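WP5 quarterly update. Target: arginine kinase. Source organism: Tricolus sp. B BHJ-2012. Length: 148 aa.
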Amino acid sequence: EGDRFLQAANACRFWPSGRGIYHNENKTFLVWCNEEDHLRIISMQMGGNLGEVYRRLVTAVNDIEKRLPFSHHDRLGFLTFCPTNLGTTVRASVHIKVPKLAANKTKLEEVASKYNLQVRGTRGEHTEAEGGIYDISNKRRMGLTEFE
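Structure tokens (predicted):
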């Protein structure tokens, strides 16, 4: 069973067959195979060392792409099953507690809109924040470079 969008696209027909996840011992690096997108490559860790998270991700992506070329379109960028991930495919997020903004959801959405950010609940899309902690990420992935 997937969400209604995956069901409409017939993307969860054989769930969970043909799907899997790899993670390193520390669970700071994961690769989901055939979840929503064909590959979802994740680098994460507690704390604020974003450079280490980024370097681990870039090293892994480059290594994977040497063995398994990614589909790319000149205008659309990298091709994914989920249209919101087209382009760079990069969704960089932090879980952060924002108590003053959380007290005023309208203001939180206003700030997010101003900076092209997406606000999600602690456990992803369509979930609520737990303990005032939100998942804040870039909203745009198409028409930008990874740096932008």
